[in-house]
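Subject: for your reference before the review

Hello V.,

The reviewers asked for a structural picture of the protein, and I figured it would be easier to keep everything in one thread rather than splitting it across files. Below is the amino acid sequence we used in the manuscript, unchanged from the supplementary table.
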Amino acid sequence: MTVEGMKCGGCESLVKSALTAFDGVDHANADHKLKQVDIGFDSSVISIEKLQEIITGQGYLVTT
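And here is what came back from the structure prediction:
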């Protein structure tokens, strides 16, 4: 998904840590230069809406 507001590697780590702390998230990779977050997750455990909520809760804007 596209995430606005990540500026550095620290931002990437923050997003990754926030996401992987939840059950159902297998992996998360963030790239601030591409403004992308790739998330592997089990949709029977966690919803895409919850993933978006986790990211926005860290202060970033999910645009896609």
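For the response letter, the relevant points are probably these. Residues 13 and 30 are 8 Å apart (CA to CA). The longest strand covers residues 25-31.

Happy to draft the paragraph if you're swamped.

O.
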